Amino acid sequence: MKVAQSLDGKVAIVTGGTNGIGEAVAREYIQQGAKVCILGRSEEKLNALQEEFKDNILTVKGDVTKYSSHQEAVQKTLKRFGKLDILVSNAGVFDGFVTLERLPEEHLDEAFSTIFDINVKGGLMAAKAAAEELKKTKGNIIFTVSNSGFYPNGGGPIYTASKHAIVGLIRELAYELAPEIRVNGVSPGGTITEITAISCLQDSVKKIDPETRKKNIASRNPLQIAQEASDHNGAYVLLASDNAKAITGTVIESDGGLGVRGMPGMTF
């Protein structure tokens, strides 16, 4: 007997789906019965995913800061799969924990524009391009936030500000697009991925070896885990499924319990 899959018959677009959390979510969605369009930049990785998943996937090479790329992804998804149920706005870049003091003056404008264009404007454009089709299916939008959308020291000031902006975007769109479209987010904590600081900040990043980074991440949350990308899949699947039909304007904090850290070192 075939076991029912929570996303059977659903169609999703995942931006930034060629690596890290986006790729993990795309793979899980396919496993759960969905058809997936990935919008990404790496032609090599897009081709590899297309070869691996065949008819279950559609890949589109594009730039999330360009509205035309989102339009293309939506149009090709409709042509290939006939509808759109889910948008996962996941594409994002990082500032490498570069603090205000270490931010290079000569790259301030470039760093701010690059991070906000991809992390915030890219999400807004994705939602705009997909909204009319999502209304038809009473679908949903899921944004990838970050623990830095709620707490300090999850990045530098530019990245942290961009993720706070996404939380605001989720709440506003959840209000505006109800009742037809649900809008939510997932806020991963420190996760072992290949994400690095944008190029103009690379020289200002404090270097740390992978093993130390992993230990540092685990030490910061109550569950003492350095998450892998796939550790967040359950939250993305839940929010995309009909099991979450009463949930909108919510961010699931998949971060090892950062909100209950308490006062470090305090015992009574």
TrEMBL record:
Coiled-coil positions: none
Top-level taxonomic group: Bacteria
Keyword line: Oxidoreductase
GO biological process: bile acid metabolic process
GO molecular function, one term: oxidoreductase activity, acting on NAD(P)H, oxygen as acceptor
Lineage: Bacteria, Bacillati, Bacillota, Bacilli, Bacillales
Alphabetized InterPro entries for the sequence: NAD(P)-bd_dom_sf (IPR036291), Sc_DH/Rdtase_CS (IPR020904), SDR_fam (IPR002347)
EC assignment: 1.3.1.56
Entry similarity comment: Belongs to the short-chain dehydrogenases/reductases (SDR) family.
Name assigned to this protein: Cis-2,3-dihydrobiphenyl-2,3-diol dehydrogenase
